[in-house]
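Much of the work behind modern protein science is quiet bookkeeping, done one molecule at a time. Below is the pair of lines this work produces for a single protein:

***
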Amino acid sequence: MDFAQRAIDIAHDSVAEGGLPFGTVIVKDGEILAEGSNLVPQTHDPTDHAEIRAIREACRKLGTEYLTGCTVYAIAHPCPMCLGALYHCAPDEVVFMATRESTAPYLSGGHEKYYDPSSFYGEYAKPWDQRRLPMRLDSRDSAVAVYKLFQEKKS
């Protein structure tokens, strides 16, 4: 089976049904473990991306938060949120069929205050206090203490 084409087909079906052009397939041992399409407009959930949906399903099926031994096929280069999730679940490989540069002309529209696919990655490279999204550090030792407790419990 052509798993890359399956991800493209999922995205095509999503567009045909009035959704967004994203599709993801996760494969393990030559079999499809999970699939996902972007349902953000339908669910009004900004995290309901194709990769996230497929990762959640695959991890539930495997009973772990890791996708060791898996290949993820995504129609386009993952957004920063999905890329972060992919780093966390650590699949063996991520295959994408379109670059950010090739898809950006079809996704941009300025409909969201901070959403600009062409600049997401540049924004994340900036120090937190220089990003367009206003951020403020309210430093607390008690917040760090939670991480210390976590480390102690792990040992």
About this structure: The chain has one domain: 3-154. The chain has a mean pLDDT of 89.
